[in-house]
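Protocol step 4 of 6: structure prediction from sequence.
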Amino acid sequence: MEVSVTTQALPDLGVEIRLAARPQGWPTQENFEIAEAPVAAPGDGEILVRNKVMSVDPAMRGRMNDVRSYVAPFQLGKPLDGGAVGEIIASNSPKFQVGQHVLHALGWREYATLSADHATAVDPDAAPLNAYLGVLGMPGMTAYAGLFDVARFQEGDTVFVSGAAGAVGSLAGQLAKLSGAAKVIGSAGSAEKVRHVTEDLGFDAAFNYKDAPVAEQLAQAAPDGLEVYFDNVGGDHLEAAMDNLNDFGRVAACGAISQYNNAKPEPGPRNMFQIVKKRLHIQGFIVIDHANLKDQFVDHVAPLVRDGRIHYTETVVEGLRNAPEAFLGLLRGENTGKMLVTV
């Protein structure tokens, strides 16, 4: 098959963001390198995508370390990767035509040449392209799987969500509320985010974890205890939740952003015997292990988004060269909702 191209010639060079050095503790701009690299024409079965928007996610921090995990670490001197949506400008595959938009995993670069098997078509007329990286993408799927499959949410549960103003937490709380939770409580890092969580997202209660100890604020917000904790933060939030969970409570351990930038590990929760005493179920999870739920997730959530029953917010940083700062801002908690970068 001949390579299908637009009327314009293929670009010679494209900007990409590389890992320059592995961070010790908090990352800085010095851990990134902005470079130009040759753009490869698509080989047999490949497509060339001009990226339009990319995602930065907390889990990317772990991949900056050279440690064994559920996904390979970023490589020094090589471009980072992550979710992106773009337009196909050349296709050497019968699966896709020039002009189609696709979701793929080679973000952090202006142009991506990849196997057509590793791309998923998305429809910009059905939903904004940004949504396929947020509420209808990996963060949305994470919230859905964590709440319903891992935490085994049931109507009437009282639910606590940490990081409630973020991309995952905001949807997890809304889904719980729309599915009949008795009460949904969130934590966030500023007064404005607390307002957003209660007034815009519809949580029953929320608190600023910087105002007072989390354990005190959570106990006040949930005087009758909790059945479910959706954990995006770890640390003192997890400890507080374990104290406030009722017998047979369930924890969906999604992330621990409070710990990601520690140069040395912090001691774990001091109340681990609560797991035994209350017969708690605590399960860590990675969204890729729940791919079987994708169709169910879309069928459940897409109509809620379309009808305006799910509220989602995005923090958008303009320009690929600003992607490192967007990522650092994410780790500092400067985003409300999904953090995205236009390319």
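Step 5 (inspection) to follow. The chain has a mean pLDDT of 95.
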